[in-house]
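Quick entry between incubations.
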Amino acid sequence: MKHLQTGLMTVGLALSAATMATTATAKDLVVGMACDRTGPTQTVGVFLCPAYHDYVKLVNSKGGIMGNKVRVVEIDTEYKVPQSVEAYQRFKKEGAVVVALWGTPMTQAITPNLNTDHIPGTSPGFGTAAAANGEKYPYLFPMAASYWSQAGAAVTFAKAELGGDIKGKKIAYIFYDNPAGREPIPVLDKLAKMEGFELKKFAIPPPGVEMKIQVQDIVRRYRADFVLSHLFGKGPAVHIKEFKRMGYPLKKLLSFVWGAGEADINGAGGWAKAQGYNALNFAGVGSNYPVLDEIKALYKKEGKEGPKQMASTVYYNRGILAAAVHLKAMENAVKAKGSGDITGEDVQKGFLAIKDFKLGGILPPLNFTNLDHEGGGWARVFRVEGDNFVPVSEWIRGYRDVVIQMLKEDH
Amino acid sequence: MFHRESGYFKTTYQADMGLYPLPIARYAIVAIAALFFILLPAVLDGYYLSIINLVAIAIVGALGLNILVGFTGQISIGHAAFMSVGAYTAANLATKLDLPFWLTLPAGGAMAAFIGILVGIPSLRIKGLYLAIATLAAQFIIEWIINHTPTISGGVAASIEMPRPNFFGMELATQAELYYFLMVIAVIAIVGALNLIRSRIGRSFIAIRDQEIAAEIIGINVFKTKLIAFGISSFYAGVCGVMYTYYLGVANYENFQLITSIDYLAMVIIGGLGSVLGSIFGAIFITMLPIVIRLLMETFGSIFIDDAALAQVIAQFRLIIFGGLIILFLVVEPDGLAKLWQNIRNYFRFWPFSY
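Done. Structure below.
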C-alpha cells in the first residue's frame, strides 16, 4: 500500500508539472497539425509529417516569417475522432492560427468548429469535395484537388491516352466501397453522359484488399479500354498485382491520389513489375526541386544526412505542399497586418491572397478564391518508368466547369 | 468516499438497498455535483472541458455496454453500430423534421434499442464467443445498410450535418455550454444505471450472468430478460451516439466502426465488469490516458530532443506505454479499476489501524 501512495503522488506531481509546462511560450506563430503516424494511414503520415517539420525548420532558419518564428504543435490522432477533437481544442488553446486536419471523418467532425472559432483548417486530398465551396465553408481549405477534380483530371487523361476520342469507349471505375470511394461517381456519371463513353463501376468491399474477381471481370468480361481506380491502404498495391497477373497493360490504368506512393509500387512487387502504372498527384513527385535541395543543405550544415523520409518523394512532397501553403498564407497575413500579431481570420484572408504559388514547380499554380478553396483543382499524372515516377502530363484540371457547377449545386 | 462507517445500523431492507448507504453520502453527492457543475466549468478553459465532454460521452456508452457484458454476461462487439443507429436516427429527425434534442435523444435511443433487441434474439441459443461473432456480424450489417441507403445516410458522403442543440432558444455551441448539455445526460445515465441494477430486472440480469439455468429455475424468463438487457444496453449506446452527433455537429458512420466497439469493450474490462463505477473509471482511463501520456512526454521529452524529432517518438511510445499500462493495471487487479478503487477504500477504512 505504501507503494500505491507514493505512486499516486508521483502521478499527481507529474500531471501538475505537465499542465504548467504546456502553456504557450513566447510570441511564436503557432500551427496545429493533426497527424497519423500510428493509425491505419501511417504509411502516409510517417513521411508527410516530418516533411512539414522540415519545411518549417527551413523557414525558421531563414528568420521565420518576417522575423516571426513558426512553432508546430503536432498531435498524433491515430485516425480516431475523439483524439482529433481533443487535438483541435489543444491547437486552439495553444493559439494556432491555422490547423492541418487529417482524415475524412475527423475533418467533418471539426469543420463546424472551424467556422465558429474562425481558425482556417486544411484537408489536402481528403474530406468532402463539396467542402471546396468557400462560400459554404469559409474556414475549410482542401487546398488540393478534391475527388471531383481528380475525376475530371482522370477522364481528361484517359481521353488523351485513348487518342483524343473517348466516345463509345469502355471505362471501368474500380473503387473502395466507402464514402470517399463513391464520391467521384456523380462527376464520372456526368462526364460519361457528356462525352458519350460507357462507364461501369466495380466496388471493392472493406477491407479493400480482395479484388481478384472484380479485376477479372474488368479485364476478361467487360474488356475495359481504360481503368480508373480509387483505392486506399494496401489496395493499390494489390490491384497493380492483379491487373498485371491478368495481363492488362498498366499504361491503361490510372489511380487516384492515394494509390500513388512508392510504398504501393514496392508492395506490388517492385518497380520492374509496375512499369507503365499511372497515378494522379496533387503535388510534384521526385526530388529535383529547389526547396528539397535547400532542406538537404540545411541538414548538411548541421552535419547530418538529408532526411531519410525524402525517399518517399510522393508523400514527403505532399507534406511540403501543406507546409508551404500554410506558411504562405501566414506570410500574407503578416504582410497585410504589418506585424506578427495575426489571428485565424487574417490567415483565412491570407489563403485567399495566394496567387500563382508554385514554389519552384513542386506545386501546381495555386490560386484560391472565395468559391474555390481547392486552389484550382490541379492534378498531374506520373507514370512508373524505370525506377522512377515520370510526369506524363502537365498540371491539368479537367472539366473544371462541371466541377464548379457541382460545387455551386452541392449535389 | 473516505468516511467512518461505525455507528450506522440498518434496520430495514429498504435502508440496506438504498442508493445512499450512509447519510454522509448525500453530502458527498452534493459536493461532487458542486464540483462538476459549478467549480469545474468556472475554472477550466475550453480545452480541458472538451476532454471532460469526450469522457462524458464515453461514460454513457461504457455504461450501456457494461449493462450487457458486465451485468448480464452477454458479449457484444457491435456496440458502435448501435451508436450509429442512434446517431443517424437523431440526425435525420433533427434535420428533416426539425425536432429538438429532447425528442431526438430518446428517439435515437429507442431506435437503437429496437435494433439491439433484434440483434439480441439469437442470444437465447448462442452464448459466449459465438454470440460475440453474431454481434460482430450485426456491426458490419448495420454499417453496410447505413452506408448504402441514402435515405438514412443522407447521400453519398454518408454524413449528415447536425444543428447544435437548442435549449429554449439558446444554441449550445461553446465547450462550456456543451459541457452542461452532455454532463446532465451523463448524470441521468449514471443514476439510471445505479437504479437499474438494484431493481428486480437488474437482479435478474445478474442471476442470468452467474448461472443461467439456476436463474431459469427460480422463475426468471431468460429470453425476455436477455432481450431487455440488449434493449437497455442499445438504448444507452444510441443515446451515446446522439450525444456524439450533437457534440461533433455531424453524424458519420466512420466514427462508429469496429475499432470503436473494441475501445468500449476495453473500457468496461479495464474499468471493471459489472460495476457502474467501473464503467466511469474505464471511460476516463481510456479517453484520458493517451492525452496524459502525451502531455507528460511533451513536457519531459522536450528537454532532451527538439520538437520535430519528439513528435515521432511520442507517437510511437505513447502506444507502447498505453498498452503497457493497460496490462499493468489488469495484472495488478484483474477485476478492473473499480476493484482497485475498492481496495484503496478498504485500506483507508481501517487506517491507521490496518492490522
